[in-house]
Amino acid sequence: MKQYLFALCSCLFLLSGCAQKEFTQNAPELPQAKDDAPKRQEIVTNALKHQGKKDGLDCSGFVSLVNKESTEPFFTPAELNGYFEDTRRSLAIYNLLETQKRTYQDKPRVGDLIFFANTVKKYSKSKSDDNITHIGIVTQIDPDETVYFIHHTKGKNLISQMNLNYPTVAMYNNKVVNSYMEKCSKDENHKMLSTCIF
């Protein structure tokens, strides 16, 4: 009887080792998407306070000024130094952000930098999409996807428009949807619209 009881206890002991234990573990929390809306609004606010003024002296100087006032969300002057190909700071900024994989051509957001190619005759011989010669900051986007941006042009920091849905017209439904970025002849006026050099 003792042997039978011992054998029964041994079997129960062995079988209990085969029993599955249920482990419950909560899924790890995913990191929350960073809300960068306050930083983007700060960039726009800092940019708009220079509207109509000569601050920055040129397009990249204006963007550098706003970048500094906004605690350098785009670049630091030290890291920018390694990205100059010539004297164009707008191209150096583009090169830095491209290297950091921070450029995209999807729908822009308020506070984004916006780049243009072939706006300066001195550098226009290249006529390539990556011949960056101008830079601005997106300030507003309308429901019809008209993008407003502030940039240094004609000696001042001014607001201009761009709408990729209407790339060959300056006006659509009595609204400016694309600004002229450079003077041009009447037969080629659509070639100097913001959409053509974006």
UniProtKB/TrEMBL annotation:
- The keyword RNA-binding appears for this protein: no
Keywords in alphabetical order, please. Answer: Hydrolase, Protease, Signal, Thiol protease
Q: Where is the signal peptide?
A: 1-21
Keyword Signal appears in the UniProt entry: yes
**A GO biological process this protein is involved in?**
proteolysis
Matching Pfam families: NLPC_P60 (PF00877)
The GO terms describing molecular function are: cysteine-type peptidase activity
Domain (NlpC/P60): residue spans on this chain: 52-167
Among SUPFAM superfamilies, the record links this protein to: Cysteine proteinases
| Superkingdom as given in the UniProt entry | Bacteria
Q: Can you tell me which family this protein belongs to?
A: Belongs to the peptidase C40 family.
What is the protein name stated in its UniProt record? NlpC/P60 domain-containing protein
Q: Which organism is it from?
A: Sulfurospirillum diekertiae
